[in-house]
Task: structure prediction
Amino acid sequence: MATTLAAPTAAQVPAETGGNGAFVRQPNAFRETITADGASGFPAEPGRYHLYVSLACPWAHRAMIVRAMLGLEDAISLSVVDPIRDERGWAFRESPDGSYGPDPVNGFAFLGEAYLATDPTFEGRFTVPCVWDRQTGRLVTNDFHTIPRQLATAFAAVAKNPVDLYPEALRAEIDATSAFVYEHVNNGVYKAGFATTQAAYEEAFDALFGALDELEGRLAGRRFLAGDRVTEADVNLFPTLARFDAVYHGHFKCNLRRLVDYPNLWAYARDLYARPGFGETVNLDHIKRHYYGTHGQLNPSRIVPKGPAVDWLAPHDRDRLG
Result:
């Protein structure tokens, strides 16, 4: 449907820096839940929901992996924003290569219009991923923490490729691992990259590489993060690893080591990359153009580096771990 809502402005984007110069991520504003039985008010009906994503965003990447793994493309439609974001937020534009385009559901010019259609008083940053409900004409959720799980569990009955990413017997381990990974790795690279004091940067930097060292050791004797199969924990870690050498190592000053310097983590990442849903959802062109072309405070020239030369298809030996 057409909209006359104004595009978001810079004034609607809050500061995300604490008093000590540390990066503080804004809370997610919309947290309704889609459930299989519809008890939440949002039943998992095929064709009802639309997923807005950026191919550059690691949080959106989680949802894309789950959607592709389970074969939910027919059940949940998807559209991609332009990787270059300005003060008005994510935009829907024509793409020369077809990798993004106009909003097919509402005809919005900017993703912020979906937020303001849901809550005209919203003053936060307009984020991806978010899920639009065609029936009620509003966003159901922009909670990147729970969207992948909602897709994996609520829509399990209509999945073309049933995969249990959150098995009951492993839930405690998955939750604990995911919380650790989020705090120190997923969000840790942002806490290093967007720190505005040396102390805040060094604290985040040390926590990040301490966590990567711990994960390297854990993956020496096991193929996946939880149990003997791919789970939500692996889905949560992979997007950060996929962006690490291309973006976080240089752009966010996370340069103690590269991903390729960790034998187990690098082999683990390649193992996942070769699996359905993972490698096919990685778009390094969008990733690099977004980070280097959008964060003017970190890269005023907005020059996008050509490297690194990384062979994601190189053989790995993770099969020996089961």
